[in-house]
Amino acid sequence: MENGQKEILRLCFQEGKGHWAYDDCGHLPPAEIQYRFRNAKYIPSRDPSWRSCGIHGFALMFDGNSTRIAYPPEALLLGGSALTLSAWIAPRSFPCGDPEAAEGDLKGITAVLGQVDPQAPRGILLGYEAFGRPCFQIGTGTARHTLRPESARLVSGQWNHLAGVWDEARAVMDLYVNGNPAGALTLPRGTRLAPAAGHALLIGQNEGGKVISAGMMDMFCGLMGEIRIESAALSPADIAARASLPGPIGDRGRLSAFFSTLGASLTLDLYVDHSLTEGFFNGEKALSLRSYAPVGPRGIRFEGGSAVRIRRLRLWRMRPIWD
């Protein structure tokens, strides 16, 4: 495969600072990195966070609440008979599932990258679901087809290579994790991908995700080291070669606060990270968190979209963690 002829987009996040991402293929103009605190109200404004532990030197931190990159549909519309979407990602945490999500729905899928129509089954999406289960979805105009392998899982806190391949000639969707085939879904012959015309290509956000008062759910939380889109169905050998790269993350930039609430026996383990949203309600600080999962009979772990109002809280212990 001649990459120069097939590559549509390649982001290597080598900028290391600022709020612009540059296409290393040179096909698309620079894209603005949208981030809540670039125009902060209660704290000094700042650019999104970068880390020096990326695939190509640097990596961009996505806060799971506001960080995203968007390419308008007039700049890029994904379609055609063959596509490969791939990414180097280091998720900071995983959702625990959306009970309201239905089969073939967009809700509950944490997006890495994709271009979808929330109102109609059109477009393509690569991401993961509850507890790190990878998934790959295409819309044909009449239905959404989702490949979600039962056994494959991503790992939080370290680099994962995720790739989805659509091949119209074979009518097959393939999903790879760290260069290894994770699953395949065979569709009826003649199935075609329906482009999501009029909708942006989004990196780090699922346009069809659930919206709550605190913001948009199903947004990616963690580090991204590379994004690639190619108008070809890469072979297993091609995917394996792309996935033969780095080791675990050294700097996660995360704090853990252990505390207990007054007047209750429930102990909470709160991970404080960049996904916290500033805001005050009636003089009380409100935090925006992304998801929660039980960690024991008396514990709940909150990790970065649902709104939590803290009225009375006694801090018990705080220490940095690097797990």
Task: Explain what you see.
- The protein is mainly beta.
- The chain has 2 domains: 3-242, Jelly Rolls; 255-320, no CATH class.
- It contains 2 helices and 26 strands.
- The protein has helices at 3-6, 236-242, and strands at 7-11, 20-21, 31-34, 50-54, 57-63, 68-71, 82-91, 110-117, 122-128, 134-140, 144-147, 160-167, 172-177, 180-186, 201-203, 211-212, 215-216, 221-230, 255-261, 267-272, 280-281, 284-288, 291-296, 299-303, 307-309, 313-320.
- The strands form 5 sheets. Strands 1, 4, 5, 7, 12, 13, 14 and 18 form an 8-stranded antiparallel β-sheet that branches.
- Strand 8 and strand 9 (122-128) form a beta hairpin.
- The longest helix is centred in the C-terminal third of the chain and has 7 residues, at 236-242.
- The protein is globular, with a radius of gyration of 20 Å.
**Which percent bin holds the helix content?**
under 10%
Q: What is the annotated CATH architecture of the largest domain?
A: Sandwich
Supply the number of structural domains.
2
- The CATH class of the largest domain turns out to be Mainly Beta
Strand content: 35-45%
Helix-strand pattern: HEEEEEEEEEEEEEEEEEEHEEEEEEEE
Q: How many alpha or pi helices?
A: 2
Shape: globular
Low-confidence stretches: 246-323
Radius of gyration over C-alpha positions, nearest whole angstrom: 20 Å
CATH topology group of the largest domain: Jelly Rolls
Distance from N terminus to C terminus (CA atoms, Å) equals 39 Å
Q: What does the main sheet amount to?
A: 8 strands, antiparallel
User: What is the average of the pLDDT values?
Assistant: 77
Helix/strand structural class: mainly beta
Number of strands: 26
